[in-house]
Write a structure and sequence with these properties.
disordered C terminus, 9 helices, mainly alpha, Growth Hormone, Chain: A
Length: 279
């Protein structure tokens, strides 16, 4: 799975990748909100927070929100640079190193949370930077790995695409029903083709994984706040080890990436990321 990128992946591989990493994204986002009061897996809410704090002349809070946006960007930038670089002879090794870096950010968050004796708003913002950077890395990695087909840290675009796919399925079902009962059920003459089952399954795996992770993260943050980030850290480490092992079976030497051109265009993410707000 980590030996190839983009269209070289099967639908099944994309579903596994999407479900696994979306669960991590939902978990970290939910647990982070409970612990530090900020959503960290997407940018839109922090842009809104920055604008509101700026309008309210709360300069320190506005600066913190801006830094969270920058941290997400830096995470995505660093992850992509690691993948683009030919320092790693095999593609799987590059993904393994990037995932291990993401895991180290989660470890750093856990360490700071356990060491800090006082609860200070600015300290929480600093902790949020680590999670934002980690989620930026994950979003960049999975986007490149899937050829810009999968996003795993926010759901707005995914939900939009489920709505689009639902409309396509409805048109196809209506056309099929019309042929059975021999009654015209729609205006116009455009015929509907059968939509892709693989695509709706992929979108469903992202929503299902993210939702499951969010529930587990929220419950974990309430019951075991000190250890709550250990499960996603372990999950990322497992993915890193898998990438390393699978990379050893991949070809030596790497061709220039073709996914970077597609990474900026996401049909299912045309709506951007979630407009969650930080509190």
């Amino acid at each position: 799975m980590f030996r190839t990128e983009g269209s070289d992946h099967t639908d099944r591989e994309n579903r596994i990748l999407a479900g696994y990493l979306a669960t991590i994204g939902g978990y970290v986002n939910s647990a982070g909100f409970v612990l530090i009061g900020s959503f960290t897996s997407h940018v839109t809410g922090n842009v809104g927070r920055f604008a509101n704090d700026l309008a309210s002349e709360q300069w320190t809070a506005a600066g913190a929100a801006l830094l969270m946006i920058v941290a997400f960007f830096v995470g995505a930038f660093v992850a992509s640079m690691m993948i683009e670089s030919h320092f790693f002879r095999r593609l799987g090794y590059a993904y393994s190193a990037a995932l291990l870096t993401q895991a180290s950010l989660l470890v750093a968050f856990t360490a700071i949370s356990n060491i800090a004796d006082t609860v200070h708003l600015r300290l929480k913002d600093m902790e949020a930077l680590l999670l934002c950077a980690g989620m930026g890395m994950q979003n960049s990695l999975v986007s490149r790995l899937s050829g810009a087909v999968v996003r795993t840290t926010h759901l707005t675009g995914v939900t939009t695409d489920i709505g689009i796919e639902a409309a396509r399925w409805f048109r196809w079902w209506r056309q099929s029903a019309s042929e059975v009962v021999r009654i015209r059920l729609a205006l116009g003459s455009n015929r509907a083709s059968r939509p892709s089952v693989a695509r709706i399954a992929l979108l469903g795996s992202i929503v299902g994984g993210f939702t499951l992770g969010a529930v587990l993260g929220g419950v974990g943050a309430v019951t075991l706040p000190k250890e709550v980030m250990l499960p996603p850290t372990l999950a990322v480490v497992v993915a890193s080890l898998y990438a390393f092992v699978s990379g050893r079976r991949g070809p030596v030497g790497r061709e220039p990436s073709q996914t970077s051109e597609a990474a900026g265009v996401l049909p299912q993410e045309r709506s951007g990321d979630d407009a969650g707000t930080s509190r």
